[in-house]
């Protein structure tokens, strides 16, 4: 037993594991996450993969990173800047150094800072010695050598031995932040069940890293402890935005007493939802990998016509291709869900980077007057709730529902309190059987047409994209009828506003000087920024909009309760222009289009500035 | 309730909508043939679904009293696939045209055929765009004069049959709008489990009248059409004295006269629906050099998409708990 060094208590920590794509940084990050969750901390994570599938080793574009923010209170974002940067090679340092706080800690594998690797990363001299890292604390360790020593007795090849480097580093970081190693041991044994030698090697490396921390005198690093956060009791797991969406769709379909046909065409960053669902056939999910984006939307529409819930997913370029088909679903008033995982645009843009610049496309990106419901997920766990809500609205209002997420949110993860099976919702979606007086566009009191499904005797009918007669459902070119049908389609979407929660104020006073308004995945950044401003004594509130179409009925009143409205978005002002046009309020924007989340400090500044101006 | 058990007649499949094709359009004859075919198929009426894209032919579902979906241009195959994936019990007929299926919707057609979704595709080929008023289509012959090709089109036409074979179709048939045999071909198409492609040569009386006259003209039809039947010799002509024979030393066919040059019936090829190479040869024959092959040219069943898809379902309805608890969980007390 070694002497236990005195640990320093910290409230929150941001760690960024960075290395070459082949260094196993995602795996390392995920294992650290599980241990952190088991330690009772709240957390948020974000993986940052290279866009290239197999970039050359050691290059900056081959760097793969994983960021985790954890602490003893509510954690809402993966963190603007980093406390600890693990750099497995020079390229990883180069790419990530500007995310590190001044005074932050670099853990570098000195063995990988060879001339060859330095030049591949574009360094003329070694940054560890030339003063580049002077503003930071540096822990320069011979990770490669230590790892090889740790696994020496297993007689692995040097290559296999070096593969265990990430576990050595993980072990060190687990010592540093006092994380339990048991879950990692369990994972290793399961993962390498068929390669006992590798299981033992990785375990040995993990333990060696940990022991190194315990015993070595690490200059200035004492080890830290982060107290557990106060969280509600129950069963938890970590959930990504993708998992939240996918599971929500399954749960929602069960609640609606229907099944899912999920048709999609692979596209970054939407594909993971298709991957997840592809293995869930037993849960009433048929997935379909279509020949293109248009076919994917059309298969979903065909499925909905036939009585299941058709869902498609994509990102901006694919959503553009699906536009005509979504219009058909609007015109034929069929349930449909379109998952819209936004990425940075225009055109191919930056597929792995986040943006919210497809809001207006979602709302209006079709020919003709073609209103649909649009919802946005805020967090990984909120993705679960929003997916269920999308199913409810689609099946109960016979309408396409666009569900907005983005490159950040689909990959981000947080701990999630598993819902009780008994608490899951139930909202059976009725199908028509009554033949008396039936016509396919006969509306109920909410303006919703019946879901009359092929195979039902006596309800044989034809639908299509041509305009339909209000009183018969037959093709009609009558001018007053077109006006009436246009109004009816719009009124139906508006009617959803009677069936959704009222807009609430997320934090801060209900009325006052300033409200920051946001939607989608910037929820955590905005909430954190508003909280920080409030701590500074500033009078500011936060409104987060989940329902973008229709907007909550009381949203106007809520916003008009504030002197100033600041709309923060990862676009050039799309929600902003909507709110200004609709409510005639002099809202101002905080708009950033960098491919990254809104930065908390940046928004806090803006809040200060706006309040300053109103003085 | 129109009971599924009531015996149905052709007229029971006519909807109350006034048919709006041009008088004399070949589409009328196809509509009648379909309405005559359906009652004999033993399918409950409520299970029929007619799906179409956009174009003259795609108005078809409105004239049927079955379930119908008039969709968007070229996308009928995808919508029809969605219907079958959702409910394989439904009896789906896809109505499309040369522009809809082979131009704007070409991609969907090839993938429908490749996947082998169990439905019937009736491809009305009139070698012209009718609904948009007469532009040349992907099957128009080179030199076709039209509003968009006033000096004659400079594009080579596409062969629907060859495209289908290349896409991995398992059933390819051809017929003519007004042909008596159309109902027989449609019945065969329906019997076949998988995607059945039926190309129907359809006369557009307004924009491309007589384009198939070389084949359909009564006076010469017997010499210009060969009605293929599985297991029967490939003979044609008024006297049934013409036949198809493989040219010696090659993989091309030639038309020979039985009785001439020492040719006997034994020299004539026998139709084999399962022979892919023969199917390609037959589909490639064009008038006037060759008779145009009609009937079931290729039929070699394979597992259908939806059959294989549903076979992958492992067990019945597990609880949602088992889904939500997937992955590593932990307890907070
Ligand atoms: S334009 Fe041609 S194909 Fe269209 S309805 Fe008239 S005749 Fe028939």
Structure explained in plain terms:
The complex is a heterodimer of chains A (615) and B (333). By secondary structure, chain A is α/β, with parallel strands linked by helices. Helices cover 37% and strands 21% of the residues of chain A. Chain A is built from 20 helices and 22 strands. In chain A, β10, α10 and β11 form a beta-alpha-beta unit. Chain A starts with 7 loop residues before the first strand and ends with a helix. The model of chain A has no long low-confidence stretch (mean pLDDT 95). Chain B is an alpha/beta fold and 333 residues long. Chain B has an 8-stranded mixed β-sheet with strand order 2-1-3-4-6-5-11-7, with helices on both faces. In chain B, α1 packs across α6 and α3 packs across α4. The relative contact order of chain B is 0.12. The interface between A and B is large, with 72 and 65 residues.
Please give the order of strands in the largest beta sheet of chain B. 2-1-3-4-6-5-11-7
Q: Which geometry of chain B do the CA atoms define?
A: globular
Unreliable segments of 5+ consecutive residues of chain B? none
Q: Would you list the SSEs of chain B in sequence order as H and E?
A: HEEHEHHEHEHEHHEEEEHEHHE
Any idea what the shape of chain A is?
globular
Strand % of chain B is 15-25%
Features:
heterodimer; A: 615 residues; alpha/beta; seven-stranded mixed beta sheet; globular; B: 333 residues; Rossmann fold; eight-stranded mixed beta sheet; 11 helices; 26% helix; binds iron/sulfur cluster
